[in-house]
Each structure stands twice: as structure tokens, then as C-alpha cells.
Amino acid sequence: MEKRVEAGEYHSKDFEWEFVKELVDNDPSLSHHLQHRDFSSASPDSKPWQDFHSRHFSGKFFKERRYLLKEFPELVSCGENSKLLEVGCGNGSTVLPILCGSKNITVYACDYSSEALIRTKENIDRSIATVDNYHSFYCDFTTSEFPNWMACDCCRDNFLLKQDCYHRGESEGVHVRYECSMNEKCIGGVDFVTLIFTLSAVPKERMPNAIKECFTVLKPGGLILFRDYGLYDMTMLRFEPEKLIGFREYVRSDGTLSYFFCLDTVRSLFINAGFIEVELEYCCVKAINRRKGKNMYRVWVHGKFQKPFLN
């Protein structure tokens, strides 16, 4: 097994988001990032991601995201037999630290690149001697449902209907109780869904349905743990005008997509899918390129959203 290095000190408030916004607003060379007109969106395709993971076969392209255990302590303090669905596992940079840091969690990981699933398993096998709490499967959650075994089938079919009845009952002063339609304590579904730098790779018109699909497989009270690229992140500002294919949406030279979120967009997407906002903020990290003597301003969006209890 490879020796693992513990997570170092992690900063998330090195500067205020308004600081980098002002830099962009006042730099004419970056004005194309502020355009509000619509462009034709690229058609989603799994092949660019297949090729991406084939090129970066060593698993060294991404480092383990060990900071996630500090940012989402629920993953460490959760009870026995907890279940987590990692959506868009890539090469395992999120799955691996979770498996190493929390012995109570069973991790289900999916990706719509079969090559990514292979690389994730290779990296897990390289770092962990034996693992029996990890399972992977192929799925494009933007166009299809998660497998039925991810949730209580009855609740999956009826929860959104129950939720609608609940909200209508509240407006009419009638109390509506949510129960599993099997009239038993519901044990289906997962306790956590992690969306870590995944949603930004989804065409923006498919994001609402993708989040609703995550909603259906969470237990009532379950959490989505979200981390993705924030508006005016250094990566966004490196894109040239011809790479802009939609408002805040870009295509890389390898054909993969990248979207950059503001807090209001994230809030709207999750609230409209039925979630309750628990935490939502920018993480602003300053790094220094010592070779070039330049400051690098990284901006990410951190969020936690809960599926409501209806009782």
C-alpha cells in the first residue's frame, strides 16, 4: 500500500469573494466572462470524460480531497451502517479519503465514464488492503434514474407526491404525515449524497433533473454535500472567449464542460428540487505560484442541503 499523508491545515477564507469580483469587473480583458447573452449549449457526451480518465491513468492527476472530512464532519461522526452515494466519482479522489476516514459508511459510487470506475477501483486497491464497504456502478444521473435498489421503491415513487400533498396541506391548515407507503419504518435510501466537482460538468439545462434524481434516493433527513467551482475562480478566468458556450458555461479543449456557480444559482437549484438549505458559502483560497511570482485566487462553493422530514 502507498503511504498516505494526513490532511494539512486548510484555509477557506483567505479573501472575500467581493475582492475577486472587483478585480474582474475592473479588468477589460476579462469582460467576456460577464456577458449575459445566451449561446448554443454543447451536446453532452461521455467520450471526452472516457478519454480524460484514459490519459490520466496513473491516478496522480488529482490528489485525495482529505479536507472534505473537515468540511463535512458528518461523514466522520455518522452512525453505523450509514450509506453514501458519491455521484461522479472520477478517479476516486473523494471516495478514497471517505473510505479511509470513516469506517461506518458504505460507499456507493457511480460515474457515466466506465473508465473512471476502473481508475477509482485501481486507486482504492492501491491504497487500502481490503475493502468490503465500497460498490460502484455505471450511471448517467442527468438522463436516467439511479437503480431501484438505491432507495425504497415505494417511497421513491410516492415521496414527491407526498411532498406536494404536504405543502398543499400546510397552506390549507391541514397536517399531513409522511409515512413509507409500506406502513413500516423506511430503511431504504442513502444517508448522504456527495456532489463534489460533478454538477459543473453537467449541461446547465440538465442540472435541475439531476438534483431531483439525487433527492429521490436520499432518506428523509438525508444530506447532499456539495462542493464545486465558484464564480470568478481562477480556472474560469483562464478560459478564452471562444470557449464560452453559455452564461458562465465553458468547454475545454478536450470537450469536457465546466460551469461556475454563484450562491444564488446553487440555492435556487436545490431549493426548487425540494431541499432545505443548511449551509451555503464561498470558499476563497489564495495560493502563490512561486515560480511565476503570481497570486492565484481559487473560489469554490460549499453547500449542505437536507431532504426534509415530512411528519
Count of strand segments? 10
Largest sheet: 7 strands, mixed
* Strand residue percentage: 15-25%
- The sequence of SSEs as H and E is HHHHEHEHEHEHEHEEEHEE
Q: Spans with pLDDT under 50 lasting ≥5 residues?
A: 1-9, 48-53, 169-186
- Whole-number average pLDDT? 80
InterPro entries: METTL2/6/8-like, SAM-dependent_MTases_sf
GO molecular function: RNA methyltransferase activity; S-adenosylmethionine-dependent methyltransferase activity
EC number: 2.1.1.-
Function: S-adenosyl-L-methionine-dependent methyltransferase.
Structure description:
With 311 residues, the chain is α/β, with parallel strands linked by helices. The chain has helices spanning 17-25, 47-55, 68-71, 74-77, 95-101, 114-127, 153-171, 207-217, 234-237, 263-272; strands spanning 82-87, 105-111, 134-138, 190-196, 218-229, 244-246, 249-251, 257-259, 276-289, 294-306. The protein has a single domain, classed as 3-Layer(aba) Sandwich (Rossmann fold), CATH 3.40.50.150. It has ten helices and ten strands. The radius of gyration is 20 Å and the shape is globular.
